[in-house]
Amino acid sequence: MPIHVAEAAVAQGRPVHIVALKGSASEAVKAFPHTWVNIGQIGRILSAFKQNGCKELVIIGSVRRPNFGELRVDWGTVVNLNGLLKLRTAGGDSSLLGRITTFFEAKGMHVSGAHEIAPDLLAARGPLGRLKPNQQTDADIEIGRKAVAALGPLDVGQAVVVARGHIIAVEAAEGTDAVVERCKDLKKWSLGRGSPRVGVLVKCAKPGQDRRIDLPSIGPETVRRVAEARLTGIAVAAGDVLIAEREEVIRLANRLGIFIAGVAPPPATGAKQRSSKRKRS
After folding, report:
1. CA 26 to CA 97: how far, in whole Å?
2. Which fold is adopted by the domain 2-117?
3. What is the mean pLDDT of each run of 10 residues along the chain (281 residues)?
4. Cα(156)–Cα(209) distance, rounded to whole angstroms?
5. How many CB atoms lie within 10 A of CB 110?
6. pTM
7. Do 2-117 and 122-267 agree at the fold level?
8. Which CATH architecture fits 122-267?
9. How far apart are CA 120 and CA 182, in angstroms?
10. Does residue 176 contact residue 242 with C-beta atoms inside 8 Å?
11. Phi, psi torsion values for 164, nearest 5 degrees
12. Which is nearest to 1 in space by CA: 156, 233, 215, 236?
């Protein structure tokens, strides 16, 4: 997806410079003007922005939460140490990423969401492939949507797996792939050996989540793992979930016999609704 966003920006006539994190970014960044950095080299990151006239920042791609004891820092990190220490404050991924966004905004960067540059990445409402959810799966999807809404204020994960009315797995710090992996043996929720597929992966943004950063995503690997776990399919919140390699995702889903469907985002929590009313007044 980082490459897709870069290509979309170039197609719009925007100059692009990629600051690529070693150990996380793909070698494909070499097709664009780029700077390689260690995740702890804050000075090098900020210098790359300044030297290349970067004013707008898109943060996208998979990065593991850093071990602060292993970081290789530079002078820019030392200068910004006070602000960086605040990133260690307790909290889930959304809390951490929110503090990172605030840090870069304080340096004069405008943070944009990947979907603002490449809106075609967002899931649309309805089925993506040839298969659709059935009545039982629709009921499971509804439970999943409500579960994500309820867990959102706790800054837990963005995905749950529901089978026959039971929530059997909730995403936490381990990520979606690990959640699906835990669901491979669903015999007790199904009919035993050789039984049909059962269960659905439901993935949504957390209510109140900053849409500019860390929107949930699925890709070909998600489809493969869901098929291996013998789930019936994937439901994603339309307008709130990014789809990487869309054509390949649809091709795989059709070939492996699972559905992918865009559904309504989770309902807002009462606290979020009250907050929105205060802002409007």
Report:
1. 21
2. Rossmann fold (3.40.50)
3. 94 96 90 91 91 94 67 61 57 65 89 94 94 94 93 82 91 83 68 71 86 88 93 95 95 96 80 38 35
4. 11
5. 11
6. 0.80
7. no
8. 3-Layer(aba) Sandwich (3.40)
9. 31
10. no
11. 50, 45
12. 215
